[in-house]
Amino acid sequence: MYERFFHLKTKPFELVPNPAFIYLSKTHKKAITYLDYGVREKAGFILLTGEVGSGKTTLIRNLVKKMGNNVVLSKVFNTKVDFEQLISMINDDFGLNIKDKNKVRLLKDLYDFLIEQHSKGSHCILIIDEAQNLTPELLEEIRMLSNLETDDSKLLQIILVGQPELKKTLSMPELRQFRQRISVSCHLYPFKRHETGEYIYHRLEVAGNKEAIKFKGHAVDVIHHYSRGIPRLVNIICDFLMLSAFAEEKNEADEHMVFDIVKDLEIDVQHRGIKTFPDNQQENIVCPKCGFKQSAQLSSGQQRAVCLKCGIVFAKFNACCMPWSDGS
Ligand SMILES: Nc1ncnc2c1ncn2[C@@H]1O[C@H](COP(=O)(O)OP(=O)(O)OP(=O)(O)O)[C@@H](O)[C@H]1O
Ligand SMILES: [Mg+2]
């Protein structure tokens, strides 16, 4: 919408995990090094965790892009499933026929496929994103998959990617064996203040014009404060900021504009991005677009929230936005 006005080739702050925009903060650089190492060394399990919107899927897509021809990949993103459904998805992504097959048959097919690939010198990797949704029982079954091996080598390397809840699940006593199999583990931390600034300008540059908009005064400080250095929140704030500058036909933004955006979006540092008020009730709200659940404390006058997952703004009564549901 505003690309032409700012002389940009593309929108700089979209919410898709596009690796073309990757910015390597200290934590992202470290994670990439660990992931590269884990894949090269064929480590049994690799674990990548990080807060909602911290860049896990973007990093994984970047990793996949760099993988050599000898890597055969299966990616699973839907984890609210049972084991049979999970194996079906894994096999399907490996290109195997899954029609009318039960769990035993699916596992046999997978094993045969892995043996065949191994004999051809291929390296099979399974990536499970959104792994925070996996139950301990399912994780235990996934551990069994890593037991598929020949006399001298593992047949399947597994990369688990998820929000911090995944770490909590993995700390359960019944998953002790699982924990012991994790050879490489890394966690993504939010950006530091200087990284938030570099990140913003980096995205503008990749989008075609580093000088599209000038951040004056304490604008970047305020963006950093309210986003807590979480890239997805930085994107949400900056996208609205550019829209607002475009509406005013200017190519600069100051901290007052950021405050206005943050107020409009009801973003607050304490509550994973959603503003809280002292005397109000807690509501569970579910994003009408992507189904992400979050809790918000809403004052009687407050009707809007921003989804921390897909970034849409939604409202309870306001006809201009998508309506939310309470998840019940
Ligand atoms: N290092 C980075 N460089 C460039 N963009 C990034 C980086 N980290 C995150 N982003 C951007 O932030 C947004 C959220 O990133 P992403 O979807 O990868 O987060 P996530 O950790 O997978 O989130 P979730 O917990 O919801 O799965 C995307 O628009 C992505 O492009
Ligand atoms: Mg993700």
Walk me through the structure.
The chain folds into three domains: 26-188, P-loop containing nucleotide triphosphate hydrolases (Rossmann fold); 191-265, Orthogonal Bundle (Helicase, Ruva Protein, domain 3); 266-328, no CATH class. 39% of the residues lie in helices and 17% in strands. The protein is built from eleven helices and twelve strands. The chain has a five-stranded parallel beta sheet with strand order 2-3-4-1-5. A three-stranded mixed beta sheet has the order 10-11-12, with no helix packed on it. Strands 6-7 form a two-stranded parallel ribbon. A hairpin with a 6-residue loop joins strand 8 and strand 9 (293-298). The chain is elongated. Mean pLDDT is 86; it is low at 269-281, 297-302 and 317-321. The chain binds adenosine-5'-triphosphate and magnesium ion. Magnesium ion (MG) binds at residues 56-57, 129. Adenosine-5'-triphosphate binds next to helix 2 and helix 10.
